[in-house]
Structures are given as C-alpha cells and as structure tokens.
Specification:
two-stranded antiparallel ribbon, 244 residues, six-stranded parallel beta sheet
C-alpha cells in the first residue's frame, strides 16, 4: 500500500453534527414540493435522514422524483436547491456542534503536519463552510481543499458517485491510494471506495448501540476494514489502515 499522505473527511455527521438539523429544514421544503405535485406522501426530518442519509438535497429530490414518478423542470430544481441551502445554513449557524471528540483529534493532526487534510462532502460548499466555521474547524483546512459534490464539479452530483473524491485527489495532486477517507454513511463510503480510497467508517454519530451495530455491519459489507466508534480512536484506526 502506498504511503498515506492525505486525510479526506466527510463533513456531515463526521466532522459536524449537522445531518439532523439539515434534514429538519429539508423535510419542510420536500413536503412543499410533494404537495405542489399532488403527492400525498409527507416526511419528517428523521424519516428523510433514514432514507437519504449521505445524499445532498439535489440527489434526494432526484430520488423522490423517481420514487413518486414526477418531474421538476431544471430551473425550478435550481430554485429549490438554493432555497434549501439558505434554510439549512440558517439552522447550522445557530445550532451546529462538532462531532464528539473530533476537534481535539483535528488539532493534533494539524499540529503534527504529518498529513494534508481536506473536506470532501456531498453538501453545497456554502453549507460545508458554514458548518466547519460554526464549530471552529475551518482553521484546519485550506480553502481550496474543501470540496463539494454539489458545487465543486462542472456537473453537480452526489455521493455515492465517486466523482467528488476523484476531483479532490486531482486538485490536491495525490493518487487515491495515498489518501484515507473518513465516512459515516453508506453513500459516502461507496463514493470513496469506488474512487479507490481506503475508508475508516465512523459510526459514533448514530444514536444508540443497536443503530451503531447496524451501521458497522453495513459498512463492513461494503468493504470497510476499520470502524471507529469514537474520535478518540482515530489515531489507532489510521495506524491499522496504514499497516494494511
């Protein structure tokens, strides 16, 4: 295995506890869309989180269109994406918190200067930056090393498409095998794996031991070899990946 030189972190519920807040805002707007298109289904934030975790809003709405067989014009989709971004950022700026024990580990990594660090997210770039700024993590990541599948690519996409990870590797000038990704979701993990990047699966943001156990099995089935339940384990988890 090549020498690991870069660490690529998902943002939502990996660095920042943002998914629950974001999906609260998403649910309101998603229900407005469904009502407009005369679809009876309605979602709560937790229901959306369960069904679409790891996807950005554009990808989620694409999935809703397929599921309920309706179509939103391109310009209208762009309007909804912008509305969702504004609503979510408002919630994050007020209420976002770092994932438990994450920031001290980032502090140690940043001080060591051993690895380059980047954020690789499905979420819109403004949302990612708002999240990490709110919790004081923006100082760890160069501005040009924050990547968004919704914003950074010529054609917006979402994880599990590997495009954003491949783009990030190209920009930072590293081969996928020289990087390690930290992901909490199935879609994010698939994105990294399909790009050829080894993954540390983080399950600490899932509430309850049963859900953590379920996600551990899900991520292992995808090919993840190292699972992290608490950010305090990061150093040991990274060493395990490097020893492979």
């Amino acid at each position: 295995m090549p020498k690991i030189t870069h660490l690529l972190f998902d943002c939502d519920n990996t660095l920042v506890l943002s998914e629950e807040l974001a999906f609260e805002a998403c649910a309101d707007l998603s229900n407005e869309i469904l009502a407009k298109y005369n679809i009876d289904q309605r979602y709560t934030g937790p229901e959306l989180l369960n069904d679409f975790v790891g996807q950005n809003f554009r990808g989620m709405v694409v999935s809703l269109q397929k599921k309920f067989n309706f179509s939103i014009p391109h310009d209208e989709m762009d309007k909804y994406v912008s509305m969702e971004e504004d609503r979510v950022i408002g919630k994050l700026v007020r209420d976002a918190k770092p994932c438990v024990n994450c920031t001290p580990e980032l502090e140690k990594l940043y001080a060591s200067k051993k690895y380059g660090m980047a954020v690789v997210s499905s979420s819109a770039l403004r949302r990612v930056i708002a999240s990490i700024k709110k919790v004081g993590q923006d100082k760890f990541f160069p501005e040009d090393h924050i990547f968004s599948a919704a914003t950074s690519l010529e054609k917006p996409t979402t994880k599990p498409d590997p495009a954003i990870y491949l783009h990030a590797c190209k920009v930072i000038g590293k081969q996928p095998g020289e990087c390690v990704a930290v992901e909490d979701s199935k879609s994010g993990t698939l994105s990294a794996i399909r790009a050829g990047i080894p993954v540390i699966g983080y399950v600490g943001s899932y509430g309850g031991s049963e859900k953590q156990k379920e996600m551990t099995e899900t991520l292992k089935e995808l090919g993840v070899k190292v699972i992290m339940e608490d950010w305090k384990e990061f150093e040991d988890c990274l060493a395990k990946v490097e020893a492979m």
